Amino acid sequence: MSAPQRSGGRGPADLRPVTIEPDFMRSATGSALISEGDTRVICTASVQESVPRWMAGRGTGWATAEYGMLPASTGDRKQRDVTKGRPDGRTVEIQRLIGRSLRGVIDFAALGERTVYIDCDVLQADGGTRCASITGAYVALELACRRLVEEGKLERLPLTGTVAAVSCGIVGGVPLLDLDYPEDSSAEVDANVVMTGDGGLVEVQATAE
């Protein structure tokens, strides 16, 4: 079976062009603007010198994530969650995935009683927004941790490894890597794979039509 025509003349196993601009937001402890093809996400890491009440006194930290899409990030205007009163199921699922992915590489004892808030805001969506968010969020997280070390608040980086994510799927019977929106919307099978830099699997999400 012949491979479908892909954006930019990509082969089935080719990623879209990826660029990451570190320290994109001056006001955040750590930040990155990640672009994967036409998908663009701002990721920030903000550090609070306390933990949730249920964790107080344990000497360990916590990390949590939020995810959102700007109204004009898609072809049809997406209503803001704040106007709906609560995030939709997709948003909740994605921000939990981002949080789990990052917590898998954080040494919370080394972080101490601090909370890292990760915020991922999609500027433009062309498939793979959750994967781009995870990759960009890790960069923001590491930059934030490095800043804490530089400021003398931490003795060492509280990270056990790196983490990134990519999508894959089957479109027209052909396995493809890093699906853009047209491919994702027509895929018979699609999956999101989160892995550490040393090849460890963090999570796999897969669905089929």
Automatic annotation (TrEMBL):
InterPro entries: ExoRNase_PH_dom1 (IPR001247), ExoRNase_PH_dom2 (IPR015847), ExoRNase_PH_dom2_sf (IPR036345), PNPase/RNase_PH_dom_sf (IPR027408), Ribosomal_Su5_D2-typ_SF (IPR020568), RNase_PH (IPR050080), RNase_PH_bac-type (IPR002381), RNase_PH_CS (IPR018336). The keyword Nucleotidyltransferase applies. The keyword Zinc does not apply. Keywords: Nucleotidyltransferase, RNA-binding, rRNA processing, Transferase, tRNA processing, tRNA-binding. Residues 15-144, 162-207 form the Exoribonuclease phosphorolytic domain. GO terms for molecular function: tRNA binding; tRNA nucleotidyltransferase activity. It is an enzyme of class 2 (transferase). Transmembrane segments: none annotated. SUPFAM superfamilies: Ribonuclease PH domain 2-like, Ribosomal protein S5 domain 2-like. GO terms for biological process: rRNA 3'-end processing; rRNA catabolic process; tRNA processing. Belongs to the RNase PH family. This is Ribonuclease PH.
